[in-house]
Specification:
381 residues; alpha/beta; eight-stranded mixed beta sheet; six-stranded mixed beta sheet; 9 helices; 32% helix; 26% strand
Length: 381
C-alpha cells in the first residue's frame, strides 16, 4: 500500500531515542525519508524556533477542509531492558512510551498520500517534546498553525500495550487526564539532632506536606470524576544525626477536568502555605502545567471517527474508559476540534514508560490502514 517498510523504519527510530527538544538525529531521519517521497503537492516545512519539529503539507485536489495529523517524536531517560537486536544505541535513553511506533504510523499514512493525492489538504506534524517541555503548545505559540497550515480538525494516536495488537479504541469526551507538575522546596534551619529546639526541621515540613496532600483527592474531588496527586520524590538530609535544612519534593496532579486541576492546584498552594506557617520553614512552590491539558475529544470528529471504525469490518474497534495518562495533544485539542485514539500494541506485561516495553510491530500496518481508510472516507463527507 505504501512505499515504506514499516518495521524497518520503526526499528531505525527505536535505535536513536532522544530527549525533548534534542531530537536532532530523529528529525534528520524523518526529513530524509519524507524527501524521498516528494511530489508537486507535498511541501516540507521546518520551524527555526523549534528546530527538531517537522511539518509536511499535502495539498488536496479539491479541498473542502484541512485535516491535521500529529505524531510525537521524543523519548525518555530510561535504560532499555528489552534485549532486542535493535535496542537503543543511546545510553540511558529509550522509546519507552512507543513514540517510535507513533512516528512510524504517521509516516505510513503520509507515504500513502504522497502516492495518492488526497481530496482535502493534509497537515502532518512530527512534534518534539511531548514527554517534557510541551512541544505542542510551543508550536502553537510560535504561530505555526496559521493560514494554509491551520487544520480544521486534528487527529493523533497513542499506543496501548494492554490492548490487543492492532485494535483501535477511543471514546467521546475526555480520553486522557490533564497534568500539573509539583516542585516544592521547604527551607528550615539545620542543626544537631540532639538540639531540635534550635533548628527548623525541613524533613518534618516535607513529611507534613506528604500527609496533607493525601486529603486533596479524598476530600475535595467529586469521587465520580476522580483525580490523582502523587509525590514521586522526597530528597532531604545527608546524615542521620543532623537535622536537614532543606527538603525537596516532586510530584504530579492529574484530573479529567481542567476545573478540577485548577482546584487541586489551589489546594496544594494552601497546604504548602499552611505547612510553612506551622513549622516555621519557608517554602518555594512551582506548579507547572504548561501544555498538558486534558485530552478532550471533539463530539463531531469523534462521532465520525467512531462511526467509520465500527462500520468497517477489517477494523478491530472498541470503546474505552478514560485513563489518567497525560498527553500534551490535549493542548492542541483545546485549540482545534479533533480526536485522539489508542492503538493496541499487545504487550500486557509491560506498561508505558517501562524499560521492558516491546510493542508488537504487527500493529503498525493495521494502524496505518485504519487511519488511511478513515481519512479517505472523511474527505467524502
Amino acid at each position: 500500500m505504501t512505499p515504506i517498510d514499516l518495521k524497518q523504519v520503526r526499528r531505525d527510530l527505536h535505535r536513536i531515542p532522544e530527549l525533548a527538544l534534542h531530537e536532532t538525529q530523529t528529525h534528520q531521519y524523518l526529513k530524509q525519508l519524507v524527501m524521498q517521497w516528494q511530489q508537486p503537492w507535498v511541501t516540507i516545512r521546518e520551524i527555526p524556533e523549534l528546530p527538531t519539529a517537522l511539518l509536511v503539507r499535502v495539498a488536496g485536489t479539491d479541498p473542502q477542509r484541512t485535516i491535521g495529523y500529529r505524531a510525537d517524536i521524543d523519548a525518555l531517560p530510561i535504560t532499555e531492558a528489552t534485549g532486542l537486536p535493535f535496542a537503543s544505541e543511546h545510553a540511558g535513553l529509550m522509546h519507552a512510551c512507543g513514540h517510535d511506533m507513533h512516528m512510524t504510523v504517521g509516516l505510513g499514512i503520509l507515504a500513502y498520500f504522497t502516492q495518492h493525492q488526497p481530496k482535502d489538504n493534509l497537515i502532518f506534524f512530527f512534534q518534539p517534546a511531548e514527554e517534557a517541555d510541551y512541544g505542542g503548545k510551543r508550536a502553537y505559540d510560535l504561530g505555526v498553525f496559521t493560514d494554509e497550515w491551520r487544520p480544521d480538525e486534528f487527529y493523533g494516536l497513542h499506543d496501548h500495550p494492554g490492548l490487543p495488537t492492532g485494535q483501535i479504541a477511543t471514546r467521546q469526551g475526555t480520553l486522557f487526564a490533564g497534568t500539573t507538575e509539583i516542585h516544592v522546596t521547604f527551607t528550615g534551619k539545620g542543626g544537631h539532632a540532639a538540639y531540635p529546639h534550635e533548628a527548623v526541621d525541613a524533613v518534618v515540613a516535607g513529611a507534613m506536606f506528604v500527609n496533607q496532600v493525601q486529603t486533596i483527592v479524598s476530600r475535595n474531588v467529586d469521587p465520580v470524576r476522580g483525580g490523582v496527586v502523587t509525590l514521586g520524590t522526597f530528597h532531604a538530609g545527608t546524615v542521620g544525626n543532623v537535622i536537614a535544612e532543606t527538603a525537596h519534593l516532586d510530584g504530579t496532579i492529574r484530573a479529567f477536568r481542567q476545573q478540577d486541576i485548577e482546584m487541586m492546584q489551589q489546594r496544594v498552594r494552601d497546604i504548602v502555605a499552611g505547612v510553612a506557617l506551622a513549622t516555621g520553614a519557608t517554602a518555594d512552590l512551582q506548579l507547572i502545567q504548561g501544555g498538558y491539558m486534558p485530552v478532550e475529544n471533539d463530539d463531531t470528529t469523534t462521532a465520525l471517527f467512531m462511526t467509520y471504525m465500527t462500520q468497517v469490518t477489517d477494523v478491530d474497534f472498541s470503546e474505552i474508559a478514560p485513563a489518567m495518562t497525560g498527553e500534551d495533544f490535549g493542548f492542541l485539542l483545546q485549540k482545534f476540534p479533533g480526536t485522539m485514539f489508542w492503538l493496541g500494541v499487545g504487550d500486557p506485561t509491560h506498561a508505558l514508560h517501562n524499560a521492558g516495553l516491546s510493542p508488537d510491530e504487527a500493529a503498525l500496518q493495521p494502524g496505518v490502514d485504519a487511519m488511511v481508510g478513515y481519512l479517505n472516507w472523511r474527505m467524502m463527507q
